[in-house]
Design brief:
alpha/beta; carbohydrate binding; 2 domains; ABC transporter substrate-binding protein; Peripla_BP_I; six-stranded mixed sheet; SBP_2_dom; 12 helices; binds alpha-L-arabinofuranose; six-stranded parallel sheet; Rossmann fold; signal
Length: 328
Amino acid sequence: MIRRVSAAAVGAVLVGSLAACGSGGSSDASDDDSITMGFAQVGAESGWRTANTQSIKETAEEEGVTLKFSDAQQKQENQIKAIRSYIQQKVDVIAFSPVVETGWDTVLQEAKRAKIPVILTDRSVDSDDTSLYETFLGSDFVLEGEKAGDWLVENADDADTDKNGTINVVQLEGTTGAAPAIDRAEGFKEKIAADPRIEVTASQTGDFTRDGGKKVMESFLKSQPDIDVVYAHNDDMGLGAIEAIEAAGKKPGTDIKIITVDAVKDGMTALAEGKINFIVECNPLLGPQLMDLAEKVVAGEEVPERVVTEETTFDQEQAKAALPDRQY
Ligand code: AHR
């Protein structure tokens, strides 16, 4: 069980601590000595998010952390409201996955003034003031985009499905302004520059949802005469694109190559079936590392500013091998 230490003990630890990067835990949400965490989740937009929420809830239960959980339905104002409510409730630690990168300084300053430490998880904020949070746990989204771009460059001949010497890519972007949408586009763009045949001919947000991916792909299929590749910023949008491609009488994975990010079970199943060509993994099982960081932060211990999750990639054969043991 993760236990909250008294304010006096935190003070003692902080005196000798080199970190002092923030507020230390001194609030008092409950009468017992367990940690209370306020968690402001993005929403329930994707299979990845469902797995992430489950990991956080299960680990909190296992570790005896009292979890106050809110679902912002992909709206920044809801997340800000949730964070303000956690501040009022004097939780020991606030964790959240910011739906978009900007616009957090005011509410994070409020948390800092209330001496409630904040942990960023999954997505980061774009702020010059890094003292507003203790640490950021999550993936390197630029690297994920780079891995997708590298694969396409390596498989460019095959990706030129109509063999006309151009490789036209349509991009299904994640939520506008979200770190994974910005960074996955950036990493991909950087890598595909190595092959002048590859061009992103259309790019639009599908909001990380299956329905969004399907609708955007339907419109791309009408407006773009020669699509060779779909690059979707997550599996769900890729799965929506598959539905649209099949409805248009084309074969996903063959007539149009598909690259996605996440590697959730549904995505891996489509990859193993040949409907997706390559998936870059993004690990949603952040619960254990998050609770460990929360314990340290509340105890006033030093934590790294950045904790990057380890991830791999899957082609179709690797998906077949990995699927039986896939947890999510
Ligand atoms: O922030 C992680 C991203 O958010 C996942 O890749 C996507 O599926 C989710 O909605």
